[in-house]
Design brief:
Length: about 130
């Protein structure tokens, strides 16, 4: 319900309560009967927490449309997360391998000293990798 509906219901209730004493007896009896009928048709309120716990363990719920809809969203999201994690790990391993090759070359003194001062040092490393 929005605020307009709530305000209208409040005004109607207030107007009915103000004129309650002026209503004829037959009208009040009919209103009481209608209220009793409405209360008898009202569904029992179930605690929301108990339903949630029961739905979690209910296999039929997971195979229903709502459960499959949630799985249809969750499975691709999980696959995306694992895929991005795998790509990140692969990229990190590649960087570590490149740094290890550079360190090995430096420790083996295979690089000339001018390579450290040259601004094209990355180009030199790439050319060395292409030759191998």
């Amino acid at each position: 319900m929005n605020n307009d509906d709530i305000n209208l219901a409040y005004k109607l209730r207030h107007a009915l309560n103000d004129n309650l004493d002026a209503l004829p007896a037959s009208t009040t009896e009919r209103l009481a009967a209608a209220r009793a009928l409405a209360l008898s048709r009202k569904k029992a309120d179930a605690p929301a927490r108990a339903q949630g716990a029961r739905r979690f363990f209910d296999v039929g719920f997971h195979l229903s449309g709502a459960g499959l809809g949630r799985l249809g969203v969750a499975i691709p999201l999980l696959a995306l997360v694992f895929g991005l994690g795998g790509l990140y790990q692969y990229d990190q391993q590649q960087r570590i391998a490149e740094l290890a090759e550079l360190d090995a070359a430096v420790l083996a003194d295979e690089l000339p000293l001018t390579a450290y001062l040259d601004h094209g040092f990355n180009a030199y490393l790439e050319s060395q990798q292409r030759q191998q």
